[in-house]
Amino acid sequence: MTLLTRRAMTTAALAGTFLPGLARAQGKKPIVIAHRGASGLRPEHTALAYELAIEQGCDFIEPDLVPTKDGHLVARHENEIGGTTDVAARPEFAARKATKTIDGQTVEGWFTEDFTLAELKTLRARERLPQLRPASAAFDGQAQILTFDEVVAIARSATARAGRTIGVYPEMKHPTYFASIGLPVEGRMLDALKRNDLNSATAPVFVQCFEVTPLKTLRSKTRARLVLLADAEGGPPDLKNVRYADLLTAEGLKGVAAYADGLGPHQALVIPRAETLLPATSLVKYAHAAGLQVHPWTVRAENYFLPPALRRGDAARPDYMALPGDVEPLLKALYAAGVDGLFSDFPDLAVAAR
């Protein structure tokens, strides 16, 4: 029996539970994924953000994962932590400031791979976008960096408390880069799935990545659901001369389905925009035909992230771009396009629109 045949049989057995087209046809609600927690309201990737997101009704909480010097997976948007912690104000770590090239981009700052977990635990989280989210910045200094195991524990505790399943949706960040410096992520991810009883197709977990090769590596070792992330431009950092657009055709998505269970596209690949929202593309239809779930990212409520027609408030105000816009039409357009879930920094709004 081939791998694809086994996958087809497994998928058929899960029809109505995880198969996207059938699940939606049977009235299953799309899932709400709390992007780094309720990160529009609390500093991202903190217990504050995750707990609030769960209170607001999300189905999954999302940690981006990067390794420490001693090999632990911690929840940070990037391995550069100058903008999301107080490390720049810590004189004992001043000498750790460095300049690195990551996925072709030159980045200056402080990096998780240069710190042990114990050292990172002495830092405190900060709001990444304080000019847009001053209310969230008021919580600066109140939360530690979390390990992936600690994020799972938050979800497990909330599941027991709320009587409904809260899943986790980890992203492997920059696997090719980390492999190049001797800190490969894939094996650590697999170990964490096994350690937390998440290593199955029915476990409340999706593992996501912008790179193809790491997903293929995991596909051969786990039945946990895997998701290929796709940006509106560019291509997978691990593949030369391949663009995401090449993978998102009707035929290309059949190839993606050989190593992934879902697709996480930039929201504009589902609902394009100009001055206002434009009609939905055929991406969801193509992905469903290939047997893939579709979870677009990331819906945010501030004017800055919305097309002009959905912005609200006095445009003359200096904080105009930080004001909340009318995000409901975007959320409803994504749901109407047939997505199986979506990422939002404001899970309460996503739940309400659903």
Describe the structure.
- The protein contains 14 helices and 13 strands.
- It is α/β, with parallel strands linked by helices.
- The strands form four sheets. Strands 7-2-1-13 form a four-stranded parallel beta sheet, with helices on one face. Strands 9-10-11-12 form a four-stranded parallel beta sheet, covered by helices on one side.
- β9 (206-209), α9 and β10 (225-230) form a beta-alpha-beta unit.
- Mean pLDDT is 93; it is low at 1-26.
Layout of strands and helices, then pairs:
Blueprint: H1 3-13, H2 20-25, E1 31-34, H3 47-55, E2 60-61, E3 64-67, E4 73-75, E5 98-102, E6 105-109, H4 117-120, H5 134-137, H6 148-162, E7 167-168, E8 171-172, H7 175-180, H8 186-195, E9 206-209, H9 212-219, E10 225-230, H10 244-247, H11 250-256, E11 262-265, H12 283-289, E12 293-294, H13 328-336, E13 341-344, H14 347-353
Parallel strand pairs: 1-2, 1-13, 2-7, 3-8, 9-10, 10-11, 11-12
Antiparallel strand pairs: 3-4, 5-6
Highlighted features:
single chain; 354 residues; alpha/beta; four-stranded parallel β-sheet; 14 helices; 30% helix; 13% strand; globular
Short structural summary:
This protein has 354 residues and is an alpha/beta fold.
How much of the residues is beta strand, in percent? 5-15%
Distance between the termini: 40 Å
**Main beta-sheet annotation:** 4 strands, parallel
Helical amount: 25-40%
Work out the number of β strands.
13
Order of helices and strands: HHEHEEEEEHHHEEHHEHEHHEHEHEH
Order of neighbouring strands in the sheet with most strands = 7-2-1-13
Averaged pLDDT: 93
Shape: globular
Low-pLDDT segments, ≥5 res: 1-26
Number of helices: 14
Oligomer: single chain
> Rg to the nearest angstrom?
20 Å
**Structural class of the helix and strand makeup?**
alpha/beta
